[in-house]
Amino acid sequence: MANLSGSPAPLGIPSDLWDVLACPCPQHAAVAADETTGQVVCTRCQTRFDVRDGVPVMLLDDATAGPNGVGAPSPAAG
Q1: Residue 1 above 60 pLDDT?
Q2: What's the whole-model pTM score?
Q3: What is the mean pLDDT of residues 19-25?
Q4: Is 12 helix (H, G, I), strand (E, B) or coil?
Q5: What pLDDT shows up at residue 15?
Q6: Nearby residues of 39 by Cβ (< 8 Å), 6 or more positions away
Q7: Which of 2, 13, 21, 44 lies at a CB distance of 3.0 to 4.6 Å from 29, suitable for a disulfide?
Q8: CB-based contacts of 53, cutoff 8 Å, min separation 6
Q9: Domains detected in the chain
């Protein structure tokens, strides 16, 4: 899948959706694509969210919590 500009869309998610996606943790941190696992990852707590048919499943109940838990900063996040 590509964006309207013709560039590849990370994980099949359009760029305009990436602009508004945020972790549902209380801090609402930005998220990034992990192309290796095919998941969306919180940049603060490293909580991971699956992508199904190009749709990110941003539900904490279905997520894999980061190493220090949901919303807690992880060493990788700085």
Answers
A1: no
A2: 0.83
A3: 93
A4: helix
A5: 86
A6: 11, 48, 49, 50, 51, 64
A7: 44
A8: none
A9: 10-77 (2.20.25.10)
